[in-house]
Amino acid sequence: MNLNALSVINFKNYIQADLELSKKINCFVGENGVGKTNLLDAIHYLALCKSNFNPVDTQNIRYESDFAIIQGQFDRLGKKEEIYCSIRRNKKKQFKRNKKDYKRLIEHIGLIPAVMISPIDTNLILGGNEERRKFFNAAIGQYDNQYLANVISYNKVLSQRNTLLKDIKDISADHDLLDVLDQQLIQYGLSIHAARYEFHEKLNPVFQKFYQHVSGNKEMVELEYKSQLNQADFGKLLKESRQKDFFLHYTTKGVHRDDMTMLLAKHPLKKVGSQGQQKTYLTALKLAEFEFMKDTMNNTPILLLDDIFDKFDSFRVRQIIKLVAENTFGQIFITDTNEIRMMEILKEIPVDNKVFLIGKDGISLKEQ
Q: Is beta strand 79-88 parallel, antiparallel or unpaired with respect to 67-76?
């Protein structure tokens, strides 16, 4: 998978930008606040139909503009693909593939596989369990459209069940509708659990391998998939919790309570990990996600590295760059504030690259 050209109009801080890109390493270098990350987010939009940073589409339109447009020209499995995204105020977001509209955005997810590593990934450690479930959904959803459809259906049924629990006046009444909703929750929930369990089992050893590489074999790490369905029958859980759910007015059992525990030397990373260890952990986790997706989809994802070198020492920076520069990784986009550091590292790596200097006055290509 390669992005050959990227164009944006009225996207975030850009009035217009048009870039011809390297098939291997593309670096966006400049001070904080000039729009380096916005270019990565534009690529994220083309891949996943949304921003990695702001879920409100209209807030990604340039101030005082009525619309934003993002376009990308890709090489995908030997074929040319043109992806077009239009965001307009008070209108539905529009996506086109080779000038043809999608009926549903879910049809596009997975066509342009991508993995982003950014500072907001710390939410995976410090945020609630919904952040870890988002990680499951974003990763699995790119290679399994049925999984995404199951998650959407599960959440819809869950909302209906919670509304019914609020409306039921007598717990002893006949609950035929509740029984029907429970069966639907079980159907979708079991499929979701099976997909997450398989993903975790295959991801964990790959993640451990990458962590050892980046850290220099300094610490032992592990991921644990936590689910109420791991050792219990979902149908039985729903029956046993029905009275409790009735009084609480919401569903207490199911895959919507799933979580992933991150362990460092058998202790919770959130409690014992330094900032450097946490960042190494997250980087290794995302690189493992990348490799898993590549092997599963038989299509190399685009890798987006946003300011990942902050709080890393020079050893770990070089370890990461040298690792992702290998042929197994494909096309890479990197943002950094340190031009000298980036140029020194690129000199050590004999692969094609382009360095774009981002400033308040625009974008320029640095001469090599």
A: antiparallel
Cβ distance 196 to 213 under 8 Å? Answer: no
Task: Give the Å distances, CA to CA, from 48 to 53, 143, 167, 248.
Answer: 12, 12, 37, 36
**Number of helices (H), then strands (E), in the chain:** 11, 15
The average confidence (pLDDT) of the chain is: 91
Is the entire prediction scored with pTM above 0.85?
yes
Element (H, E) at 187: helix 176-215
- The torsion angles phi and psi of 355, rounded to 5 degrees, stand at -115, 120
The pLDDT tens digits for 1-46 are 899 999 999 999 999 999 999 999 999 999 999 999 999 999 999 9
Q: ∠ CA(357), CA(19), CA(356), 5° rounding?
A: 15
* Beta strands per DSSP E along 67-195: 67-76, 79-88, 94-97, 100-101, 114-117
Which 3 state secondary structure label does DSSP give 73? strand
- Tens digit of each residue's pLDDT (9 = 90 or more) over 298-311: 889 999 999 877 76
Q: In terms of C-beta distances under 8 Å and separation of at least 24 residues, what long-range contacts does 92-99 make, across chains too?
A: 93/49, 93/57, 95/49
Whole-Å CA distances, 352 to 24, 26, 183, 222: 6, 9, 54, 35
Q: How far apart are the first and last CA of the chain?
A: 25
Secondary-structure breakdown of the chain: helix, strand, coil percentages, each rounded to the nearest 5: 45, 25, 30
- Listed in sequence order, the residues at least 6 apart from 240 whose beta carbon sits closer than 8 Å to its beta carbon are 253
31 near 90, Cβ under 8 Å?
Answer: no
Task: Judge whether 357 and 326 are in contact, CB under 8 Å.
Answer: no
Q: 133: which 2 tokens?
A: 């479930």
Dmax of the chain from CA atoms?
76
Q: Say how far apart CA 331 and CA 342 lie, in whole Å.
A: 17
Q: What is the DSSP letter of 123?
A: H
C-alpha angle with apex 41: 39 to 43, nearest 5 degrees?
75
Contact in structure between 216 and 319 (CB atoms under 8 Å): yes
